[in-house]
Amino acid sequence: MKIAIYSNLGESSNIVATSLKKKIEESPDLSIDGLNPEIVISVGGDGTLLSAFHHYQDISDRIRLVGIHTGHLGFYTDWRDYEVAELVDSLEHDNGQSVTYPLLDIRVNYVSGGPADYGLALNESTLKQISGSMVADVYIKDTLFESFRGDGLCVSTPSGSTAYNKSVGGAIINPTLNAIQMAEISSINNRVFRTLGSPLIISPDEWVKIVPKSSNRTILTCDHQIISNEAVESVEYRISKRRIAFAQYRHTQFWRRVSNSFIGKVNLDD
């Protein structure tokens, strides 16, 4: 089986990546292949895994990801830095087991009239105003839903619902649900301006279209990376037909993962 190792530049991650590479090269059943891997192992934290996903995005339908955690908090990472030997043993006994999560399709139309841009997000995409309040019409399918005024809008996947979406007041969605979510970022609600003020859960047969009124001052992000500062005419978000796959040698149950990440160990004696 062909394996790629994608590590951040931290000292602890480099130590783990070096140890992992050595053990893989010693295995008769495994080999290192950074160009056409079957398994991509991320060494670091969730940010490293996001970078690994985007690095291999063009072949994401042919790979499975594994995360080794070397930092403080890893939501996507099932393995710890001291479990390299156990992971290599799981790789040697791989039988194709996996769990898949929904991804977010992003289609951007520019004021310049050029061809539409397409993107893919594992966590979320945001549309924000550089300065002042963003004013935008929000459509669900082809129907105008509301006129938004505020700092911006965040559209996330279920697995990304625990990331930036959560910090702006969005709901946490189990990634077994095939849905996307739109959450408002500091919306303005008073007698003059009014939005729903609640997160929206969008079903597989629906999509969200955002049309900013002052398109020359917006910034579009994908997984916290700026993907465009061109004048945006509209952005359309849908559930992607593609999904991300994680090798399921070990996979923490979703709500336990949420509890461990944000609440910690619960002491029932208190």
TrEMBL record:
<keyword id="KW-0521">NADP</keyword>
<dbReference type="GO" id="GO:0006741">
    <property type="term" value="P:NADP+ biosynthetic process"/>
</dbReference>
<dbReference type="InterPro" id="IPR017437">
    <property type="entry name" value="ATP-NAD_kinase_PpnK-typ_C"/>
</dbReference>
<feature type="active site" description="Proton acceptor">
    <location>
        <position position="46"/>
    </location>
</feature>
<feature type="binding site">
    <location>
        <position position="225"/>
    </location>
    <ligand>
        <name>NAD(+)</name>
    </ligand>
</feature>
<feature type="binding site">
    <location>
        <begin position="123"/>
        <end position="124"/>
    </location>
    <ligand>
        <name>NAD(+)</name>
    </ligand>
</feature>
<dbReference type="GO" id="GO:0046872">
    <property type="term" value="F:metal ion binding"/>
</dbReference>
<dbReference type="GO" id="GO:0005524">
    <property type="term" value="F:ATP binding"/>
</dbReference>
<keyword id="KW-0808">Transferase</keyword>
<dbReference type="GO" id="GO:0019674">
    <property type="term" value="P:NAD+ metabolic process"/>
</dbReference>
<feature type="binding site">
    <location>
        <position position="149"/>
    </location>
    <ligand>
        <name>NAD(+)</name>
    </ligand>
</feature>
<comment type="similarity">
    <text>Belongs to the NAD kinase family.</text>
</comment>
<comment type="function">
    <text>Involved in the regulation of the intracellular balance of NAD and NADP, and is a key enzyme in the biosynthesis of NADP. Catalyzes specifically the phosphorylation on 2'-hydroxyl of the adenosine moiety of NAD to yield NADP.</text>
</comment>
<dbReference type="Pfam" id="PF01513">
    <property type="entry name" value="NAD_kinase"/>
</dbReference>
<dbReference type="GO" id="GO:0051287">
    <property type="term" value="F:NAD binding"/>
</dbReference>
<dbReference type="GO" id="GO:0005737">
    <property type="term" value="C:cytoplasm"/>
</dbReference>
<dbReference type="GO" id="GO:0003951">
    <property type="term" value="F:NAD+ kinase activity"/>
</dbReference>
<feature type="binding site">
    <location>
        <begin position="162"/>
        <end position="167"/>
    </location>
    <ligand>
        <name>NAD(+)</name>
    </ligand>
</feature>
<keyword id="KW-0520">NAD</keyword>
<keyword id="KW-0418">Kinase</keyword>
<keyword id="KW-0067">ATP-binding</keyword>
<keyword id="KW-0963">Cytoplasm</keyword>
<protein>
    <recommendedName>
        <fullName>NAD kinase</fullName>
        <ecNumber>2.7.1.23</ecNumber>
    </recommendedName>
</protein>
<dbReference type="InterPro" id="IPR002504">
    <property type="entry name" value="NADK"/>
</dbReference>
<feature type="binding site">
    <location>
        <position position="151"/>
    </location>
    <ligand>
        <name>NAD(+)</name>
    </ligand>
</feature>
<dbReference type="InterPro" id="IPR016064">
    <property type="entry name" value="NAD/diacylglycerol_kinase_sf"/>
</dbReference>
<feature type="binding site">
    <location>
        <begin position="46"/>
        <end position="47"/>
    </location>
    <ligand>
        <name>NAD(+)</name>
    </ligand>
</feature>
<dbReference type="InterPro" id="IPR017438">
    <property type="entry name" value="ATP-NAD_kinase_N"/>
</dbReference>
<dbReference type="Pfam" id="PF20143">
    <property type="entry name" value="NAD_kinase_C"/>
</dbReference>
<keyword id="KW-0547">Nucleotide-binding</keyword>
